[in-house]
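FIELD: query
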Amino acid sequence: MIKIASLFFLGLLLGGCLPAVGPASGEVASPPAEQSFVYQPKIHDAETRALAAYAKGRLAAKMGDLEAAEVFLREAADAGPARGAILLDLAHLYLRQGQLDKAVRASEDALIEDPDLLLAHLFLGDVRLRSGDLDQAVAHFERVIEIDPDHEEAYLNLAVALARGGETQRAVEVLRDLLERVPESINGRLMLARLYREIGLTVFAEEVYRNLIAQFPDFENAYLELSGLLEAQGDWQEAVNVYRLGLESFPDNPQLRHLLVGVLVREGRLPEAQEELRILLAQDEADLEAWRKLGLIAMEQGDWELAASGFRRILAEQPNHHQARYYLGSALEQMQEDDAALAAFAAVPPQTPFYGEALVHQSFLRQRRGDAEQARALMETALALEPERLQYHFYLAALLDEQGDFDAALRTLADARRLDPRNQDLLYRKGVLFGKLERWDEAVQAMRELLDINPRHADALNYIAYHYAETGRHLDEALDLARQALALKEAGYIRDTVGWVYFMRGDYDRALEYLEQAASELPEDPVVNEHLGDVYQALGRHEEARRAYRRALEIDPEARGLKEKLQDLEGL
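FIELD: result
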């Protein structure tokens, strides 16, 4: 602290011009009539010179003239008695200039002048902490506590330094000491909870957070951090409880409510999440994040109209909200509003992360409208933009498959295999495509390659079994493979394969058992109904065979061979 010499001197520093005072009477002396003058004081005292330099230095620093401030403060430090405090001001000035080394030296010089200068220890402790010199930081903060045992900031910084140095137990003890001396220290409690959390003592952390909430119910961070801790532990319901407790104290806090929505969505409690979002929108109709979440939940629930209205609301406020535009297109696509959906997807610009997916959706919509060439071009563009996206290879292969270009689909899958040579879905699709080309040996080889990777792949087992049944070859192996597949995956189409293998083996009773159940599970499958008719025919149950064949024809009037089978039954 700088000692002020006199009110007279203060007047000078403030730029005033006091009149001369007569040495004897103290009365104001009038200047001679023929001239006027301004009093020019002469400062001879070292202390007053130091004070003047200090005032000029502070003013220069305030005005942003740091070089001039340095000169004046250095002059004040050299001339004045309060050298330590001025050197500390100089250290802060150096820090503003980015001259860390000079700042440290000035602070250390201040401590030479006054070893108990608390602010100098605090300053150096902070600098050492930031630079990673933890031992020095600890020493300075401990000295601050020796000087002022109730200095909250010193305890907090000391705990941080110890924790960073791996001395977590000492850090905990420091914070406990602080709370014994300053029980009302919210920051001390908060840091203690964080430290417990960091070292894995989550039970203690939770206890500290709950005590904070109990004693300081208006401390928002306690709710946020406790809920975050509970979420990290997977205690979702308790996290919900804490968020709701926080909202009792802060009903208008959007952050707490948004976080609550996140947990509710995570837990699949979508109606509750929707209700919280409606509260948010009632508080702030312009909360676009609430609209976005409401739209996504509506999509999850299949409420496409509500989803579309939410995304339109966002776009009305932010036309460049490309995520909302992409999701709007998705909702419109589900609503069969293909023109509007195409327009939405086409408006997603290339520089956004949604562009590739928008191209994929446009491709699907073009294919649905019968524009095969444009659909293919769009999908190829998406793949060219992101050639490492395995899913895009699958999409293009599926599109080409649907268009009947099986060779091109196979080439696409072959190109994809470099990305993931052991991808099971890729190998399965490859085998199916070989089958569509009637390249059966290659189809079976692809499925066996898949089974080498995953012997429990039910669909690959089923594929080989059905192929062997259709060709009447390797029926013992076919039965074994089909039964393995059914044990792994209880499905009607696999049950049909087992029944068909039994049929081809001539075991019609066992075949009937499986095929009747398959037909009950897949009543709209023409092949299953035809197989059932074949078994009834083989067993001499001609009327049931007719019904099964007629059912198959109703489902697929173009099915090959069914009309002939019915005609053969007419005379029976």
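FIELD: remark
Confidence is low (pLDDT under 50) at residues 1-44.
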